[in-house]
């Protein structure tokens, strides 16, 4: 993450060059593309009624005005201004993408309804179906939090055992290697027999998807710890408990976080399937429900929410990793 932050700072420094004369030219270009999107949305009629067309035109128009104002004031905003300058090309590309998206779907109908939706179609879903989407987000986060939390907890404990104990690894590693490649969704028939409720079965599937990468990477990290660390600690009187908690686990944390990132993506990938097991609400249930009615705009809207949620959690995980492993810089 530190490397990424450095890249952002370097990129910001490089992208800030056009703003030296007092005007952020990329911001002007971004304002122009967003204004183009607003004009296309408001000026041309929709081929098919989608709803929220004027609302989308207002939002993009206000965005254009804000970008125009930022073009002359971004240098006074400090860190936030440098961040905006860095992402300026993306703002230009986003405005162009919205305009092209509008033309090919709502205005010209080249990408027809219901298979494709214009941006105001997605916006209309968020406006008109907000209460149900909020309930689905809450149900999805509850299922994911319980499943992923329990999965990584078990996976971490099992991984430490596999990496520390040769006897445990002798029996456990072949089983883990056998179960690991099997997709979590392949266990659905068994879950109906072993778990009393469909929610418990869904939790198990999410936990399995998130826990196995954590177990494998944790075992790999513990097993790869430099033996010299153990020798030094034993020389100072450390027992096995100290070696595990104070030497093996801290040294293996980079591998543990790699497993967490992998498990996070896998757990989100199986969420949709897990919420098909008799769930009453949830983004996976919502996607399945709307697909049965060919309401693909609602499907795309739910997929965007899932992508944003996953990206936000990944960002939080990066922040947590950087804070937790800051002590290792220059040591390992």
Oligomeric assembly: single chain
Q: Give the name of the CATH architecture of the largest domain.
A: Orthogonal Bundle
Instruction: Give the overall shape, derived from the CA principal axes.
Output: flat
Number of helices: 14
Helix/strand class: mainly alpha
CATH topology annotation of the largest domain = MetI-like fold
Query: What's the structural domain tally?
Result: 2
The helix content is over 70%
Structure in words:
With 332 residues, the protein is mainly α. Helices cover 77% and strands 0% of the residues. The chain folds into two domains: 25-107, no CATH class; 119-323, MetI-like (MetI-like fold). Helix 6 packs across helix 14 (296-324), helix 7 (130-164) packs across helix 10 and helix 12 packs antiparallel against helix 14. It is flat, with a radius of gyration of 25 Å.
């Amino acid at each position: 993450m530190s490397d990424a932050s450095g890249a952002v700072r370097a990129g910001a420094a490089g992208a800030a060059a056009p703003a030296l004369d007092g005007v952020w030219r990329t911001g002007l270009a971004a304002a122009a593309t967003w204004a183009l999107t607003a004009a296309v949305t408001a000026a041309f009629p929709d081929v098919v009624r989608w709803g929220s067309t004027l609302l989308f035109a207002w939002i993009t128009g206000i965005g254009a005005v804000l970008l125009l104002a930022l073009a002359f004031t971004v240098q006074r905003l400090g860190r936030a201004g440098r961040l905006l300058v860095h992402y300026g090309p993306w703002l230009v590309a986003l405005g162009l993408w919205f305009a092209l998206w509008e033309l090919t779907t709502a205005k010209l109908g080249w990408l027809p309804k219901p298979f494709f939706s214009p941006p105001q179609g997605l916006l209309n879903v968020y406006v008109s179906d907000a209460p149900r989407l909020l309930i689905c987000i809450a149900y999805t986060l509850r299922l994911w939090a319980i499943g992923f939390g329990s999965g990584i907890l078990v996976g971490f404990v099992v991984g430490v055992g596999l990496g520390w104990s040769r006897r445990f690894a002798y029996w456990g590693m072949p089983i883990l290697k056998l179960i690991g490649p099997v997709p979590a969704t392949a266990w659905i028939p068994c879950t109906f027999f072993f778990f009393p409720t469909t929610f418990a079965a869904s939790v198990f599937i999410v936990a399995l998807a998130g826990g196995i990468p954590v177990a494998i990477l944790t075992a790999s990290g513990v097993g790869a710890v430099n033996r010299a660390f153990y020798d030094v600690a034993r020389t100072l009187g450390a027992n096995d408990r100290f070696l595990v908690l104070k030497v093996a686990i801290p040294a293996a944390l980079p591998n543990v976080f790699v497993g967490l990132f992998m498990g996070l993506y896998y757990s989100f990938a199986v969420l949709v399937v897990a919420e098909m097991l008799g769930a009453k609400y949830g983004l996976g249930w919502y996607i399945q429900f709307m697909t049965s009615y060919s309401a693909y705009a609602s499907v795309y809207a739910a997929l965007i929410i899932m992508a944003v949620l996953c990206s936000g959690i990944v960002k939080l995980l990066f922040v947590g990793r950087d804070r937790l492993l800051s002590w290792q810089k220059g040591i390992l």
